[in-house]
Amino acid sequence: MGRLIVIEGLDGAGKRTLAGKLTAELGGRVARLAFPRYGVDVHADLVHEGLHGRLGGLGDEVYGMAVLYALDRRAAAEDLRACLAENDVVLVDRYVASNAAFGAARLHQDARGEFVGWVREIEIERFDLPVPDAQLLLRVPVEVAAERSAHRASTGDRERDTWEADGSLQARVAAVYDGLAEDGWLSPWYVVDGTSDPDWTGLAEALR
């Protein structure tokens, strides 16, 4: 059975770039997944509509949006387990901690608040999603992440959603992520400086 390694961080932190470099460094059989699965799962597509103000009041409802994120992962659980059975490592761009961090931040709660516990109950205990073996927090200053996401939008790569454009929300999300990493929520966490070039070989060795 392969190891489930999750990459977390703010919008614009560089998670896809990190996943690409780690894939090359880890060697062996490495599979990559990303959530939400836009264009693949109906729940993910509803998330996209909510993030762009096209779901009426549901887009503003913290628990409602969190359930849509969770249902996307639940629908992917069988494929995820198959990937783990067939590969040495499965790298996932965003997972359960994203739901916890963004929802808690929207409610102005911290990493030990009620919402984070609720997400764990729904996604891990009730939906029985695979628990990560390790999680990477790609930490960058909020201002840097905002510049990157704005640049990505300006080049037509992807339109910024309402959460990405909310600097205050992103700052609170960063604080929740720091708390989750400090607490070792669900699994051991590794904090990676997203503004410098890390020791890729050492990081890959720690994750094997």
From TrEMBL:
GO molecular function: ATP binding; dTMP kinase activity
Domain Thymidylate kinase-like, first and last residues per copy: 7-185
GO-annotated biological processes: dTDP biosynthetic process; dTTP biosynthetic process; dUDP biosynthetic process
GO cellular-component term (any): cytosol
Keywords from the UniProt entry: ATP-binding, Kinase, Nucleotide-binding, Transferase
Annotated signal peptide: none
Family annotation (SUPFAM superfamilies): P-loop containing nucleoside triphosphate hydrolases
InterPro entries: P-loop_NTPase, Thymidylate_kin-like_dom
Family in the record: Belongs to the thymidylate kinase family.
Protein name: Thymidylate kinase
The species this protein was found in: Actinophytocola xanthii
Lineage: Bacteria, Bacillati, Actinomycetota, Actinomycetes, Pseudonocardiales
